[in-house]
Amino acid sequence: MKSDTQGSKLLQGAFILSAAAIFSKLIGTLQKIPLQNLGGDAAFGIYNTVYPLYTILVTVAMLGLPAAISRFVAEASAAQDDQEGRRVLRLSAGITAVSGLILGVLVYTGAPVIAVWVGNSHITSALRSSAWGLAVVPLMAALRGYFQGLHNMMPTAVSQVVEQSVRVAVMIALLLYLTAAGADAAGIAAGALLGPAGGGLAGLAVMLLYWRTYRRRGLQAAMLQVPSRGKLAAAEVRPERGANARKLLAYGLPVMLGALAMPLIGLVDVFTVPRLLTGSGSSETAAMAQFGIYNRGLPLVQIVTMLATSLSVVFIPALAEAKFQRNEDLIRTRITLSLRWFWLLGLAASVGLAVLAEPVNTALYGDAAGSSAMTWLAFTAAGGTVSIISAALLQGLGAVRAPALHLLAAAALKAALNLLLVPQQGITGAAIAGVAAHLFAAALNVLLLHRQGYLRLRFADALLKPAALLAGLGLVAAAVSLAAGRAADAAGFGGGRTAALAQSLLGVLAGCAVFALGAVALRLLSENELRQLPGFGPRLADKLKKLRLFP
Description:
By secondary structure, the chain is mainly α. Helices cover about 85% and strands about 0% of the residues.
């Protein structure tokens, strides 16, 4: 009975955390659109140059300790040793706080040097603004790790939503103020990058309130109980503080290194594209503006990959369970179905965004600049989605290092292709390099799954049927969008953002309809296959069956 209750609590916590992560990531992704609209392409370029660096530095500052805290606190909780869990938190919180402060000071003082490495002096002020977030966010993450170790996901979920909401509110407030004051692009971007510090402070305040409430309840419970011998014995044999620090770092550092692999492809762009654009004859301001235009498509691609990331957590425990049960057929079925469908969904999103790139660009950003680069960048959704899901599948099977190494190889390919293509084709060359890099990482993961004997894909299911479906999707979406554009022209309001928005929405709706009907008609997924997908599969199958979409 106790294990059932605990399992239910874990599932409920995972759902709460996933929902909060999706919502907060959606806020964080879509906030880039008003940034470009209010600040312009140059400020947008500076922001998208500095923010990936900030993300990397925050990951380094945390040292992987939130995951380590979660593990060791869970062990202490299982042993009913609350005092040990609190000591783990104090120790690791101290380490992360000091680490964040040191990195923050280094970034603030070393901002001119980092700007030289990037090849653009306009990012110096923005780098210094981002340093303030480094002093706050790691400590907040440590507190989140503590409550996750207690299987209480609500504090993390609430703090994530509050953090992102305040971050966007601070950013937009400063954008309005700075643009009204006539600040330049560098100043506007610096103001926007104070958002993470404001959001971090708000998230930390939420976590401290939860901690205060938890401590108060713990003290009240302790006054009513006498420590058992088991707890006293645990306290007597508790290891020294230095040993605990070594254990925490030994567990956390590999987690940190694995997390650093994820944003590497984007970091390659930061250190190569602005410098290559400047080397091709553009001024530093023009290079930042072009880099901002290049990044216009990323929020839309990130929505697709964000969905894949959120759903990927379902597959790791499901495959681990199937492997523990030695159910090889179930492993193969789940891997084959998940890869086939995420490949198809990623391709559908890529094709839809590619054919609608111009109206989407105009609707969101006010003009069609960089639409050719956005068309290419759209196809990173296909490779990125498969790369994320296949990495989760490999991790579920116990291959933890391979996906990170594959991402490192993909980042090296991205750097080489940037050096080759950006001087010739500008930001379009960078977009083509991104497509190749993400597909390369996905191909390496899929090849490893195939070599391990877990992957079965038929040529018709992997290529021929999807090609027919996607061709229909693209043609219908483009035709509907074109018809909407001509209708807007005839009505006298064509060429503006409103008309472009109508073209985009109608094209997306038409594409979704073709995708749903075509998938059923081509029998790319049966009801029985959908029910075998972990987590959401059975519920989705029930809904589709009610709509009579299955033959």
